[in-house]
User: What shape does this take?
Amino acid sequence: MSLAPRAVLVHRTTEYEELVAHHGTHGQAAYFLSSRGRDIREVAERHERAQRALAEVTAAIPLTWRQARVERADLDRFLFAPEDVVVVVGQDGLVANAAKYLSGQLVLGIDTEPGRNPGVLVRHRPRDTAKLLTAAGAQVDELTMVEAVADDTQRLVALNEIYLGAAGHQTARYRLGLEGDGGVVEAQASSGVLVGTGTGATGWLRSVWQERGARLRLPEPTENRLVWFVREAWPSPATGTSLTAGELPARARLRLTVESERLIAFGDGMEGDAVELTWGQTVEVGVCGERLRLVG
Assistant: This one.
């Protein structure tokens, strides 16, 4: 006998909840914000909208389905099941935060603040939830992801981008090369390396691309291709700047060998969930074999 589907609602603590938890009461939080020229009413109204959206989405889940909730901070400890339908209620970034912990589950992004969020990944309104959960033929986009695999088997997956560099974004020292490029590598000192997808091309990756004035064509979200940039490479007698940007087709890999005491790799801005790398370790970054299945 097969289990009924389980709807897993992914959400995050609101700014209002964080303020009240830190300051103890609504009044103390209001006083703190007013001392900095802000009004707590705006923060509280956004909290109420988020809560109404969560309630509306919850009420739309079919009665025969099972339900679970997980807060953003607990994603790395939550066990997703193959039959889950993941309903992300919040901002675009919350979909990316959840993506690295999934393995083919269907994802539905619900926008709690239309007009404030770009809506790249949270494409739907709370009122659409019931129709989308029961629509067997709903359009699904399979978004390309990026992965980093270290020589000690540590693995990191991200939807937008993976950053490799020093903690705190200080100077990172390493040797960089492309797999299958005849062994050509370059010693570099930089602010780190960014490798991203077509989805990431709407965020951090695009800002680097714009500043660089790069001629590279940014990939589409479903395109089986990545782009990479070295941030602020420093030229010196021992370090070069000839390998600072490029493309990674489906089977290509960017290889980085650590020449610092400690470097880290993290995905989609979640530095707290990073892979740690030490002197002499090698990590390869490329297109991930898994995709994020997002309801269009």
User: Anything to note?
Assistant: The CA atoms of residues 188 and 240 lie 6 Å apart. Residues 40-60 form the longest helix (21 residues). The longest strand covers residues 282-295.
